[in-house]
Structures are given as C-alpha cells and as structure tokens.
Amino acid sequence: MSNQRCHDSGMKNRIRQFIGPRAEHTITTFGEAKLVSLDDGSLELRGGRPEERTAAKEWISLFMHEAVPRFRN
Q1: Binning pLDDT at 50, 70 and 90, where does residue 31 land?
Q2: Average pLDDT, the chain
Q3: Cα-based torsion angle of the residue sequence 34, 39, 43, 45 in order, rounded to the nearest 10 degrees
Q4: Nearest to 35 by CA among 17, 10, 13, 53
Q5: Which residues neighbour 28 within 8 Å (Cβ) at sequence distance 6 or greater?
Q6: Which of 14, 38, 40, 62 is most enclosed, with most CB atoms within 10 A?
Q7: Mean pLDDT, rounded, for 9-33
Q8: pTM of whole model > 0.85?
Q9: Of 16, 54, 47, nearest to 32 (Cα)?
Q10: Cα 18 to chain center, whole Å?
C-alpha cells in the first residue's frame, strides 16, 4: 500500500499559495479610492480623484486618527 500522507502533502503545498494569507486587505473604498491594510501593518490609500482622496483623508482623521497612511496613485 502507498503512503497516503505523502500524496496529500504534495497537493497541499501546491494550493497553499491560493488559500494562504493575503498580502493586503481592503478596509474601505471612497469611489475609486481604496484604503488597504498591508501585511506589515501599514496603510495605503490608492487611486481615486482628488475629491475621493479628500473624503478618505477626512474619514481616516475621524475613525483612524492614529493612522498615517501612505499615498499611491
């Protein structure tokens, strides 16, 4: 009889990349602007028009006042 554990472990290693932790998590969106949390604990505000980015900054100042997000277009 073959060793069943040996066969299962190979499959688990191949799909681990799809079911493992994500590198980022979307917190909220403001139109096209998106506030994301990264694995290293930092925050990043991505994309959006100037009005949407302003709304995001106001939201951050009210609900996440200790946060210092990076900005990326």
Answers
A1: very high
A2: 82
A3: -30
A4: 53
A5: 34, 35, 59
A6: 38
A7: 73
A8: no
A9: 47
A10: 15
